[in-house]
Amino acid sequence: MAKNTNKPMKRLTAYQLILVCITAIFALPAYSQPATTPKTKIMTLGVFHFAYHNLDRVQTAKEDMISVLDEPYQTQIATIAKSIEKFNPTIIAIERDPSSQNSIDSLYALYKLGKLAPEKNEIYQLAFRIGKELDLPKIYCVNDWGRHYANIQTLFKDSLRLQKFGNFIDSLDKAEGKELQGKKVTNIIHELAELNDPMMIKEDLSSYLTGAFLYEESPGDFTGVDFETGRWFSRNLRIFRNIQRIPRTPEDRILVIFGAGHLNILNPLIESSKEFELVSPVEYLKEALYHSLRCLSLL
To answer: Which residues of 228-253 are buried (b: 16+ CB within 10 A; e: fewer)?
Structure first.
């Protein structure tokens, strides 16, 4: 008779049983990950400044400025607003400092009552218009101007150093043939579609990595880098932080209306965030352009 060579299984001790259970518990997440937290959708709508404040390096000549209060621009803006409303924003954020919130609240209240005189800026023309149409209670101010390092603040107070800095930037602009004069806008819908094109936004960031960024007061220092850090990168990081501060739920949909130049920093931040999902306005603007052209063909 053959001998049974199978050894009986050893009974697990209490300690071994606990160890097996702990191992199984820690192994569970690999097979049953918790559900991903839903992200709040954000659409960034980049614009040129409708009121032509000319506060940027690129300036628009007076003869090239349009009045958005005139036709056909009012019809074009209304068409843009109607298309963007289909995104169904529940929150609108604008390029105004939080310190202006009370003022914006008052102006928006007057606008909703039809008691605010027409203004050219994009806040009146787009933010207030869309907000009223969707019956939103508030328009949020999220702008910031950044913060410079102490060495750059010192440079600003020294006229000779500042002059050398300005001469350096001007010489590079001239060598590269940079166009510092804004063009005349003929169609606002087409202009915004171009400004919000992802490739255009990406290319725009490159201009912040040349010019002033390259300036060195002495070989190997970071004068230009420090300047752009405060002027642009710090500014947009702070704007993003202000957007984060807006009370919201994953079900909310945020519309950010800002100067288009800001999108080269804001969009990558939103795309990288675990809190938000970036939505491009390009398809909405294409729809607006199609509607506008169709209306013209029917005239």
So the answer is: bbbbbebbbbbbbebbeeeebeeeeb
